[in-house]
Amino acid sequence: MSSRKKGRSQKSKISIAALISAVIITVLVFFGLSGGFKPIVGKITKTVQNYSSSAVAVQNAAAESQAGSKTASQNKNLAVSFIDVGQGDSILIAREGHGMLIDAGTEESSDTVVNYIKSQKLSALDYCVGTHPHEDHIGGMDSVINSFSVGTLIMPDVTTNTKSFSDVLKSVQKRKLKITRPEPGKAYSFEGATLTVLAPNSAKYEDLNNYSVVIRLVFGNTSFLFTGDAQALSEKEMLAKGYTLKSDVLKVGHHGSKTSTSADFLKAVSPKYAVISAGKGNVYGLPAQSTVSRLTSAGVKLFRTDLDGTVVAITDGKTISFKTKAA
Ligand SMILES: [Zn+2]
């Protein structure tokens, strides 16, 4: 019994094997004759290619996601960074890999400014503005000029005999730069934005702060006003000239000192947001409480670098959003 059974199962195994072989041979012959191998081979190659192209797609996706972590300055949006430089001013405006700097902080904050610009993956600055030759605005300017190639350098026509000022002049000479003097009413274009110089409007001032280059930037329907350390006198001149001052964001003049942001000027600007650049616990007691109150009682949303750290305003030309270190 057992041997018969064995014999039968061996027989059936053989016949199954024969059947499979026959099918395989038939298929092979059929495809061989009809040239069917090629398409199959082709198909396999194609599938492999598909795999490798999807590997490329993955790589691209990785590159894109890296690009997704693009710095604010590389985006289509315009980013305005009020860099925390302690008691001083430094504002980086950037869009799609192009940058513009208004003031460079103190000598002490040089590295902070240079590193911030580098962190935004910028190697050049289309514009660089030294609003006026006080150390808290141009102290880091020589480092900036030495570190990045600068397109147009705008500085007011006034000199001082400080080391920081002569350092700036040395770096200007070294890099063979030309200083462009601010002409009120003159407009410059920057990456789809328009910058208009609004001050200084006089040739001579007693107070160096009033030489401050004031710039209004318009991007789409949004606007910013950068006032340097311009004081009430310069504000009055800008009002008298009839310039459009109305702006969504005001960089508050002179670190929020009571000698700037006069009532009439604030009314003309009527900002929704204001940024005060000041150092934590600075010896000058800036910003002045009266200026802070004037702004907040006018319903202005106030940001302060001494409290918020670096403040970044981002606009798509329609709306403006703010990011602070704390947020
Ligand atoms: Zn200042």
Task: List the main descriptive attributes of the protein structure presented here.
single chain; binds zinc ion; seven-stranded mixed β-sheet; 10 helices; alpha/beta; eight-stranded mixed β-sheet; 327 residues; disordered N terminus; 22% strand; 15 strands; Metallo-beta-lactamase, Chain A; 39% helix
Summarize the structure.
The protein is α/β, with parallel strands linked by helices. The protein contains 10 helices and 15 strands. It folds into 2 domains: 2-68; 72-324, Ribonuclease Z/Hydroxyacylglutathione hydrolase-like (Metallo-beta-lactamase, Chain A).
Detailed description of the structure:
By secondary structure, this protein is α/β, with parallel strands linked by helices. It folds into 2 domains: 2-68; 72-324, Ribonuclease Z/Hydroxyacylglutathione hydrolase-like (Metallo-beta-lactamase, Chain A, 4-Layer Sandwich), CATH 3.60.15.10. The protein contains 10 helices and 15 strands. The chain has an 8-stranded mixed β-sheet with strand order 6-5-4-3-2-1-14-15, covered by helices on one side. The longest helix has 33 residues, at 2-34. The chain starts with a helix and ends with a strand. It binds zinc ion. Zinc ion binds at residues 89, 134, 136-137, 229, 255.
Topology:
Blueprint: H1 2-34, H2 37-68, E1 78-82, E2 91-95, E3 98-102, H3 110-119, E4 124-129, H4 135-138, H5 141-147, E5 149-154, H6 163-174, E6 179-180, E7 187-190, E8 193-199, E9 214-219, E10 222-226, H7 232-241, E11 249-251, H8 263-269, E12 273-276, H9 289-297, E13 301-304, H10 305-308, E14 311-315, E15 320-324
Parallel strand pairs: 3-4, 4-5, 5-6, 10-11, 11-12, 12-13
Antiparallel strand pairs: 1-2, 1-14, 2-3, 7-8, 8-9, 9-10, 14-15
Helix pairs in contact: 3-5, 5-6
The structure holds zinc ion (ZN).
Zinc ion is lined by residues 89, 134, 136-137, 229, 255.
